[in-house]
Structure formats: C-alpha cells, structure tokens
Design a protein that fits this description.
Distance between the termini: 37 Å
Largest sheet: 7 strands, parallel
Structural class: alpha/beta
Shape: globular
Strand content: 15-25%
Oligomer: single chain
C-alpha cells in the first residue's frame, strides 16, 4: 500500500485531498497544527492517522518523519493567509507567513526526500493564483506562494534523477474557510471575474493533486485550478 503525508489535513483542501487519497488506496498521515476541525475530520476519516506538528518547527517535522516507515507522496498543503496593506504589515506577520507557507514546505520536503530516495515518489505543493498574479493587500502571502512556485521548479530538476516528481497545484478562488470572510457582494464580484462563473471546490483541487501524484512523466509544472481566473 502506498503511503502519503498531507500537511494541513483537517479541513478544506487538505481534508478533501485526504478523502480522495484514501479512496484511491493510500495509507494517509495528516498533519495539523492547532486542532481546528480535528474531531470532525476524525469522524469523517477514521482510517487517517492524524499527527500534530507545526510545519515551521524543524524538530516537530523531523519527529513526524521518524514515525513514518516509508513515503510515496508528500502533499504540502499547510498554509496561512494575510490580508493587510504592506505599510500595516509587521515583521512578525511577514515571518509567520513565510515560515509556514514556504518554510514548512521546505522542512517537509527535506525530511520526505530521505524517505523517497530509494524507491522514488511524488511531491505536490499547494500554491495559489496570487503566487502567479499577485494579490492587492496580500503582498506577503503572494510572495510566499511565488516562492513555493520557484521552489517547485528547482526541486523538480534536483530530484528528477532520483525518480521523484515535484509539481504544484495553484488554486484560484476556492470555497473554503479561508474565503468565508467575504461578503455576499464581494463573492458575487469575484464570480463575475471568473470565466466559469463560480468558486472552485476543495474536491476539484484534490483531483488535480491526485492526477499529479500519479503522473510519472510530469514534473516541475504549476497546474492552475482557477476556473480561468488567471490565464
């Protein structure tokens, strides 16, 4: 049985990815930080092993990978958002977003690769449309996701000789808790900017993740799942 690790796996995109991987026959370990949504996730997915770990803490990440005997797929989904004008953004804000969004991906990759070198594997990073297009009042978040895109491309070249593919899914506006704060009129305005006329679903992002996990001759790619929002 193939084994996958999904960071940020208790809700939204991460939970949808876990569900689809279980359905596809993977043994899944999901990481969470603060436990939000954990009990509900456990009820929905009793087969998943849920482990608490702050992905920006190297000791915590290292301890997780020491518990995993082997790994075939890593999905770097854990992330935080930040909606602030740049002049109001503190250095602490900046560091928190960077430490989790790109630092967490780096740490998980660092220890995952050691598990994959012998038998190969796949790494799928979750980025954002703002990493490509840039989002007003989301400069730091956009920068962190742009870093994930660059990290993906460089890793793909570095790890290809070891039989490890590295790709990225770049979601657009997805109907998750991260966008739950939007007012009705703001949601409507966004939908008007999306050619397909609606928000995406976590399940649609999960389908892209599974596709890249299985694709043996695709690496270094950023797969946009955005309804045509950014082309």
């Amino acid at each position: 049985m193939k084994r996958a690790l999904v960071s940020g796996g208790t809700r939204g995109i991460g939970l949808a990815v876990c569900k689809l991987l279980i359905k596809d026959g993977y043994a899944v370990t999901a990481l969470y930080s603060k436990g939000e949504g954990l009990e509900e996730a456990k009820k929905q997915l009793p087969e998943v092993e849920f482990l608490q770990a702050d992905v920006s803490d190297e000791n915590a990440v290292k301890a997780v990978f020491e518990k995993i005997p082997r790994l075939d797929l890593l999905v770097n989904n854990a992330g935080v958002s930040l909606y602030k004008q740049v002049q109001d953004t503190t250095l602490s804000d900046y560091r928190r977003v960077m430490d989790i969004n790109i630092g967490g991906a780096f740490l998980c990759v660092k220890y995952a690769v050691k598990k994959m070198l012998e038998n190969g594997g796949a790494i799928v990073n979750i980025s954002s449309v703002w990493g490509q297009a840039g989002g007003s009042c989301e400069s730091v978040y956009s920068a962190s996701k742009g870093a994930v895109d660059g990290f993906t491309k460089a890793l793909a070249k570095e790890l290809a000789p070891s039989g490890i593919t590295v790709n990225c899914v770049s979601p657009g506006v997805i109907d998750t808790r991260m966008n739950a704060h939007l007012k009705k009129e703001d949601r409507a305005a966004l939908c008007e900017e999306i050619p397909l006329g609606r928000f995406g679903t976590p399940e649609e992002v999960a389908e892209a993740v599974l596709f890249l996990a299985k694709a043996k001759y695709i690496t270094g790619q950023i797969l946009a799942v955005n309804g045509g929002f950014y082309i």
